[in-house]
Write a structure and sequence with these properties.
The protein has 414 residues and is an alpha/beta fold. It has helices at residues 18-24, 34-47, 65-73, 83-91, 108-116, 127-140, 175-183, 208-224, 253-263, 277-280, 313-317, 406-409; strands spanning 5-7, 10-13, 16-17, 29-33, 54-58, 77-80, 99-101, 121-124, 144-151, 173-174, 191-197, 233-235, 270-273, 284-296, 299-304, 323-325, 332-333, 336-340, 349-353, 356-357, 364-367, 388-393, 396-401. It starts with a strand and ends in a 5-residue tail after the last helix.
Amino acid sequence: MNYFNYNKGTLYSEGVAIKDIASENATPFYCYSSDAFISNINKLKKAFNEISPKICYSTKSNSNLSILKLLNKEGAGADVVSVGELKKSLLAGINPSEIVFSGVGKTEEEIEFAISNKIFQINAESVSELHTINKIAKSLNIRQQVSIRINPDIIGDTHKNISTGGLGDKFGIPFSDVKDLFFNNSSFADIEISGIAFHIGSQIKTIEPFTKVFKKTSELIKEVNRDRQIIKFLDIGGGFGVDYENNTQEFPLNEYVDLIKKFFDVKALKIILEPGRYISWNAGILVTKVLYIKIHGNKKFIITDCGMNDFMRPALYEGFHKIIPLIEIQSTEKISTDVVGPICETTDKLISIDEFYDVKEGDLLAVLNTGAYGSSMSSNYNVRPLIDEVLISKDTYRIVRKRQTFEESILQET
């Protein structure tokens, strides 16, 4: 579904014209729709209603405080991968009992903070980490619920940079080592190892990889739980793919739910989901201005004020994002065109396309579907400021992250 559409030739979201925001705020900036976040999470809740999972929004996709608060009101918890994300989630009002801490490199300080705040679950990704969690839990006299993140050696059909389920990836404990951790866990007397977690990658658009990992995991759970129920929680991650090119949420959620019910006893196991992109991707756009236009032979360059420091996905993942003008343009030019940014890197490119709108210098463009892994991956590269983030709700908008000043960007330097 589109949450940014033309109305009489002008791009709108909900009841606000994006050009009006641009007239009052410098470009580039991120612009989000509250309705999009709410609709997306409720679509997931409806699809999974029968198994009533704990939905822990993957904050790394977009960790803006206002968005975390918005999703918390809709019943979402949080999946975090750093103490910073954990602190933001708590600050947004998310109950610690709804927070899962994932990630391969948690420090002792991060683990101590998580246990002290009595979060629901820590997903351990190595035997060494299990020992560290156990040691800290003992020192705090708090018994912490822990799930073992398995590496099932199953790779989803996705970009190599966002694959996380193969033995060549850094994530999880090898499948062959997991069973022994449940049966011979006397070294971990101060933690409750009662869950399995896995996440085989992001942007997975087909059901087949999940069929493989579900089958393999269900066999493990049956074996471990043969005499008594040791495994009580099953964290199945996220990774539901979306179609950036055609702007659709094409992942077969109903088939996925049926697959869960086929392989797992959903009455005995508490299911945990960690969706991120599926909730936030189409909830945002990135607004940028055309600075210059130049032609090199048969190649046209449209140079914008949005750099790869503002939006990393095209450079990092070869991510495709449609770009449209804020004021509708009918005419296009059939010429090889690169829409690029001002960063001194060849990969600072938003899109390469054979035909593009006949835009002029000074025109405003919207890079679509940038709600996920946009602002959360931005940086100060080339000493550029972090940009504004704007949240629309019905017919009003407000700035939910202010543009950084130069002085703020160097505040920690001496």
